[in-house]
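Structure (tokenized):
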């Protein structure tokens, strides 16, 4: 994990240090003016100077604690959630990079049946985590992150080319304000069970992966139930949690401009990756780096 000191904590520590130095200067001037005595009864030491000296002493006692807090650790857990046309193994390129940084990582197997079922599956995994946890979602699972991320245990939310609706928002209506992505035309249904056609999967979902790798991913894609698409989030975790977003610039599954809109709306720390929808496989280093930043940024300064 990165061990750099949080800039906000450093600022607070410097502020207290300035108070200390100001108080000491006033106190020393007063002592010299009174002939070398530090008695608080000297007429040369006014109430303001004496107050500053007390404030300086109090601030001095706080600084070691501030420094210790700045050196503290962030979240140690990461929970990853996959979206449509995939399963939990889609994070296989990202997971070892996170584990290499000392993070405890769990990939949720999203049932892809209903939003409530998917939320429940993520909540069960989250409940097993000990301490602050970064919740990460790709594609459709941004819906799950948005809902489950309201849990107090979640310290930050990360969206990877993912949906990020507001509470109660109709995501389909939102998406219609932007160009329709080509992958949408490739969704095929067998009754109520949906999947992506091979042509659309290779071209529009995994377009920047070697064909052989993309075909393996196509072969293991998990089907989803039509009812899953009808779900609406009741919470918007990004309104209250530190948020991070990775935009896929060559995405043909979720329009990049829609991704940018959602990232800007949530005020997310944002990176742009020159990738297809599967940036977590084609550019795992960048995605892992963003998640690591989210984990490091969740440390508590006070």
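Design, position by position:
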């Amino acid at each position: 994990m990165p061990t750099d000191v949080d800039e906000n904590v450093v600022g607070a520590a410097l502020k207290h240090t300035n108070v200390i130095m100001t108080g000491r200067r006033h106190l020393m001037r007063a002592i010299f003016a009174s002939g070398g005595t530090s008695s608080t009864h000297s007429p040369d030491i006014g109430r303001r100077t004496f107050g500053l000296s007390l404030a300086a002493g109090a601030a001095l006692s706080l600084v070691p604690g501030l420094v210790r807090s700045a050196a503290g650790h962030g979240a140690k857990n990461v929970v990853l959630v996959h979206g449509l046309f995939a399963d939990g193994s889609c994070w296989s390129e990202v997971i070892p990079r996170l584990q290499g940084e000392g993070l405890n990582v769990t990939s949720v197997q999203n049932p892809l049946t209903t939003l409530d079922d998917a939320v429940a599956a993520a909540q069960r995994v989250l409940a097993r985590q000990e301490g602050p946890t970064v919740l990460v979602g790709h594609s459709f699972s941004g819906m799950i992150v948005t809902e489950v991320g309201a849990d107090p245990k979640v310290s930050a939310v990360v969206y990877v080319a993912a949906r990020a609706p507001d509470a109660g928002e109709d995501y389909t209506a939102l998406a219609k304000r932007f160009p329709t992505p080509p992958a949408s035309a490739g969704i095929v249904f067998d009754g109520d069970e949906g999947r992506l056609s091979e042509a659309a999967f290779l071209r529009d979902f995994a377009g920047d992966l070697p064909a052989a790798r993309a075909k393996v991913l196509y072969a293991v894609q998990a089907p989803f139930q039509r009812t899953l698409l009808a779900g609406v989030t009741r919470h918007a975790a990004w309104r209250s949690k530190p948020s991070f977003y990775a935009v896929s610039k060559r995405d043909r599954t979720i329009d990049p401009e829609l991704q940018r809109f959602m990232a800007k709306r949530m005020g997310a720390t944002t990176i742009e990756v020159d990738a297809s929808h599967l940036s977590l496989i084609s550019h795992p280093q960048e995605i892992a780096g963003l998640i690591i930043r989210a984990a490091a940024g969740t440390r508590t300064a006070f």
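Reviewer-requested clarification: The CA atoms of residues 7 and 116 lie 39 Å apart. Residues 7-33 form the longest helix (27 residues).
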